[in-house]
Amino acid sequence: MARLKFLLGLIPSTSKIEEAEKALITEFEKLKAFSKSDQLARYVELNENINSAVFAQKRREIESLKYKNSDEFNKEKEYKKLQKAKDITRYFKTLSGSRLKKHFGLDGSDKIKEYESLGKFIKSEEFKEKKKMKSSKFRQTEEYQKFQKYKRLKSDSDIVDFYKFKASKELDNYKNIRDSQRLNRYKELKEYVASEEFKKQKSYLLDKKRFEKSEMFKNLQEYGKLKKDKEIIWYFKTKDLNKFDVLKSRELTFCDEFEGNKLDDSKWIPNYYWGEKLLNDRYSVENDLQAYTEKENFEIRNSVLKIITRPQKTNGKIWTIDKGFVIKEFDYTSGIICSGASFRQKYGIFQAKIKLGNANAKSAFWMLADKIIPHIDVCKTSGGKVWFDFFPLKGNVAKTSLGSRYAGKFYIFTLEWTADKLVWKINNTEVFTQTSDIPQDPMYMLLSGGLDKPISGTTSMEIDWVRVYKFV
Prior knowledge:
By secondary structure, this protein is of the alpha+beta class. The protein is built from 19 helices and 17 strands. About 45% of the residues lie in helices and about 25% in strands. The strands form two sheets. Strands 1, 2, 3, 4, 5, 6, 8, 13, 14, 15 and 17 form an eleven-stranded mixed beta sheet that branches. A six-stranded antiparallel beta sheet has the order 7-16-9-10-11-12, with no helix packed on it. Strand 10 (about 375-380) and strand 11 (about 385-390) form a beta hairpin. Helix 3 packs across helix 16, helix 5 (about 70-85) crosses helix 14 and helix 6 (about 85-95) crosses helix 13 (about 170-180). The radius of gyration is 55 Å and the shape is rod-shaped.
């Protein structure tokens, strides 16, 4: 079925795949960014708080509060009771009246002392003996004078009122209440019910809309608004979709979008790895019809790298099994780049968007380790076809091919490499699978043009981008 798809050209178009992946990555990046946003953090915080048993309990407590059941109510009730109590009201009436002030003004005064001293004298035996004298004689005595003064003082209105008040229930009440715990409690409650704290709490308890005025209600309103927010709804609807699994399962480890105007020499060398490291020169291999140049056969324009293969006579080195390196005259030139000095990876997704060009030329996206094998052609043209090859360290060569239609346009060529499998794909459609003799050493990438048979004119291999991912 897959083979039929390729024969009929029914695989997804490159542009649609790129558009879909770009949209998916954009959405995924938006999802990751939103997952760290203050807006989401606030929603999660409110959601946890408002849907908690603690919040529900606290809300019930607030809404069920009644002033009549409160400590404030009981204290105010106790205060009003004391305020109306007869002993308390009588105490304050006495305290504010003039009689108490006048009483304490006379108490201990010379006038009272004199009156009480005269009264004591008149009750004495000495005075009683004197009073037995004839009245004419008695009126001439000092004792008589004292008696007269005593009578005057006894009828003095101030003294009369002083002793009358002193013997009153009013004064007794005053003295009983003055330093009592009852009066202290009254004063304490009076001060409390007059305080801002009491007034505020009483007003709060009497307010039937107290929950609506609470911070909890504000949080509830904010939560309700956030819950309806389009971004929040989108996030929770989207975050667990399996369409992001492919992005979550990989991590970009190498990328070149060819956005400059020359090769990035921190990523690529325009040579074979061993040619650069040991020979310090470029070379071709036996049966190649092209010599590789340093830069003449590369062109970067509009973020696309062209590796150009053209008719051009030149001398260069070639490696042969019998003679080693020998000088040869070539009729063609081309280019090769590799990541051997900068990037190698064991397992992962190796991917490039490539237009291979003339299917009779030898354009290739391939991989090597430190030796000639294992050798993987992620894609290669030769003999009018597009090839997918595997040359293992041990075992048989595995290969398959498709027609030239897959060389003339841009396609996304992919190799998925795991510990037990190699899978080749074009535009996410599986072409070929290998499950034996899987490489177990890090490998690097090569992109090269060339020829194994003569062609007329110039051809080029075009590379829009190269990306490598590791599995996570």
